[in-house]
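Teaching assistant here, posting this on the class forum so everyone can see the example we discussed in section. The complex has two components, and the goal was to see what a joint structure prediction looks like when all of them are supplied at once.
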Amino acid sequence: MSVTTQSGSEIESKMTKTTKAPHATAESMATKQRDISVSEFFAKNRHLLGFDNPRKALLTTVKEAVDNSLDACEEAGILPDITVVIEDLQPDRAAAAKSSRYRVTVVDNGPGIVRKQVENVFGRLLFGSKFHRLKMSRGQQGIGISAAGMYGLITTGKPMMIQTRPHAHKQAHHIELAMNTKTNRAEVTVDEETDDFPLQRLRNLTTGTRELATSNEFLSHTQYPTGTSVSIEMEGRYQKGRGSVDEFLELTAIANPHARITLVPPTRESAAEEDDVPLLTKKAKKKDDEEAPKADPNSLPDPNLTKEAPAGPTTTTEVGGVIIFPRGVAELPPETKEIQPHPKGIELGTLLQMLKDFQEASGDSTLYKFLQEQFCRVSPDTASDFCKAIGATSRTKVSDIEPQQAEKLYKEFQEAKLAPPPTDCLAPIGVRQLLAGLLKGVRAEFYAASSREAAVYRGRPFQIEAAIAFGGQLRADDQARVIRFANRVPLLFQQSACSSFKSVTETNWRNYDLQHPRASLPVGPLVIMIHMASVWVPFTSESKEAIADYDEIRKEMKLALMECGRKLGTYLRKRAKMKREGERRDVFQKYIGEIAKAVSAINSVDTKKLYEALLDQARKKTAIADLQLDEDGKAVKEEDPADQEGVIVVASESTMPVPVDSDAPPVGKLSKAEAAALKVAAMAKDDEPTLLDVKPAKRQAAEKTRATKNTATKGGDKPAAKQASAKQTTAKAPPSRSSPAKTATEKPKMRLVNGKLVPVQDGPKLF
Amino acid sequence: MAKKAPAQTPSANNSKHARERDKKTMGKIVGLADDVAKRALGGKEPTIDIPTRTKSNTIWNSKRGILQMGDAVATRELFNLNQAKQFMQTCLHANSIRELIDVEKTLSLRGMFYKGLHTVAGTNGEKTFADQDESDGILEDLEVSMSSLREELHIFAKKRGTMAGNITIVDTGDEIDCRRMGSGGYAIPSICEPDVIQFKKCEAKFVLHVEKDTVWGRFNEDRFWQKHNCILTEGSGQPTRGVRRLLRRLNEELGLPIYCLLDCDPWGHYIYSVIKQGSISLAFESERLAIPDAKFIGIRSKDYKACNLSDDVQIDLTDTDRKRAGEIAAYPWFEKHKGWQKEIAGMLENGFKMEVESLTSKAISYVTEEYVPQRLKDKDWLD
């Protein structure tokens, strides 16, 4: 009985249960029934927000802060530059300690926050600009960063520290906030003006930060003319591996190639609790580490943000323990538009509330106007039709609408034939950026991406993108790794509950020559990336870890995956063909030397001459076979995976036949891949914006090689020409590492990035 | 008795003959190499033609009573994935043979395997020959493709087979009296060409060839060859080319009839068939190995009853035996031979095999003292 009269809150029900009084009366109960503050509720249910354990708490804090920073930067049209510093405040703790006290500081170069909004932004739950609108953004509810501050306050008692500089030439605000969970309001403990932004203290933190700071690459004033810095002290656990801060930032960098992200991790990891799962680039990172001292400073982003054009494809670098995820593309994602709700996308309750709100806001205007202004895809005709259908006219005031009429209107919405919501509110990552992101973070051999057209679920537009990376340094006998993103935010937990995971398992990967056990992930050296962009991503919980399983969403995901899969299948089949041909050639070449020797011992013909003659035949023989294979299939162009749209192939050494005799290299696949790259580069239009700018000298070099190749082919001596171009491209690669592209002959090795040539600094070895 | 008693000193004749023979072989090898080089330098695919040694390319010459090789030729191509390695091996062995001829030495089949064996240049430990079988096959290919005998290629096989009897021969210049070979007998070499072995003196009237050395031992101990004025040979199962060549020469040059005493089983019948008509894999050698008038004197299927043997000597026919017997019965030279059809049918009817040694169950020397003399006297044999 007592339960039914209550407001369903478990907090209060607990309180009544602990009451010793034998019988509570309605009056005595009423004294205890009161408002619960949202912050109080979440303080007690912090797992709902992603603060289940110390490790996840640390991650969630970083995640919320970084999400906010990225959103803010993009809205202000600034290329994001974000620095994450995690300081270990108890470096002398016992080795076995499972957690420690950390100070997490996230600095961005965003627009900053005006003084009077600071308390609201950081000190209140469910306060934000993003909840009430239908616009694509990372944050949605406005819970994140305040909850992180609250968690810090609960676990350490320390307030949140904020520096923000909204105007480049004015002083920054320094504010310290402690949140009052009872009132859902922040209490300001320190409020002063300061010149210290970004914090000088952080630049002197480690040798690595000092080194970077002296070359103006770490928290310099030029990089951060405006911006916000949030510091939260908290109980946490820093550990690498799956679901770590490192992984989160790495994936964020993949999905946001326009952002530069710097991480200063704590000096030591917490004691391990479970087996560490290696990260995507762990092996590669180690390599970078070894090469770090002699790293080319050119490969680091230029401090000048707007003109940034790195010479090579950007990859993660590490300097003195500081990890830098450099910027891959120097263009912001397109500005997204806010849209009105679609009639099919709202519930009856929402409709009633909207009517009420409109009545108040517009001074009781007409229903016709309401329909026109508050919804998208309602034309004047349809608005009139709706009015008629519920027995009203276009002049009927909103206040005159009876509840039954509203309900009727809701039903009419569901039955009406309406155009789907507009899709210009979505900013997908884009095929080129997806590939750039994957190239940056994953050392593979084959990359493919596809972007679906926008679709609709529950009246809300969304768009699915998928990309896959295959081969290279990825482990062949593991299950494929699925990396998931929603509005460019990586999703790290509850993989199997996510719609994207289901779409991967339901896609038939066997069609694309991959192993695929039933109802599980495919097995192979494969990374699958899925991104959902939407004005409202349907998460399964407040901690935003998995996308709800709507049929419309899963269908789009599967279609995107299938598109990538087809590209991969084509590539794998082509690769198998190439391998077979390579083996054939190998077999012949292997025995030619023996034969030449034996025959010349018998009849004293010139060994070398005979060898050359036989080798020449072997080449012709396999060259002819190549040609036939191409003609057997579809058109030659379609067969070549490098020619497909949205595909990058990084020729790896393993797929190349090893020349038997170093004096006479065979027509290796290297030269073929190079030739393909050059060919596609030649087809690209000049006015197309380049993903990564290839310097003119390099482009000339590319054209020159192509020219020599073409003329030579016409001359009929095809193998020799191919060989020559192979020699040119491979042999000239090493010198370019030290001095990138001074002359045409010093052409660096080129890699194909969506039809554009990009110089590869480290050669295919890296991938 | 010897028709071809050498007038000159054997060695002089020998070396002269050998030189001519080597010159001819060398010409063939160089021809093969020239062909490869010419085609390669002329921009054509190098190939080697090798007559096929399969049943389908074996022709039964009923007029001459021997198996002969047909005209079918397989072209071994360098630029064929399945043949590239064999092509290389053929070239390697051709060169090895060239070297053997140059230094005037011979090698065994196994020796040839080791001669050609090395790691293929530029590979990670791939051997030129996986095993001796591969090497042996290539050597046979070379024999047929150059239509040269193994002996002409300076290659010999393991020696097998024994001889004793009323004959004196000269083997590489050494005079050998086969009447004085003790219990072991004269080991028949793998090369029995006239330049190696000459017949000097022969009183024997016929040759008795038995299947195994155990049976041969019985006959030798009983001095059968002395009593019956003959030559006694054995081939340790299927006779080697050396044994067959020697029997053929005894038959052809000295006019001695060849009588075969073999087991009563499909294997025994097959051995007889090989001695008489030649084999499929060596069809190209039938010309100089087959002995169309060789005779089969036993053991016969009727002997179980005729000799009144005990049940204990029966060895049951297996399914494989029955199948094999059917195949042998279908051989063209047996197919129209009523005696043989009856013989094989008799064996199948009996349902068991009998070895020559089974006669021992009657008496130790039953086979030498009664069985063979009686058959010879009665001219009771199959041919």
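For the discussion questions: Residues 1-19, 273-314, 627-640, 652-767 of chain A have pLDDT under 50 and may be disordered. Chain A touches chain B at residues 584, 587-595, 597-603, 605, 609-610, 613-614, 617-618, 621, 660-661 (CB under 8 Å). Think about how each of these relates to the inputs above.
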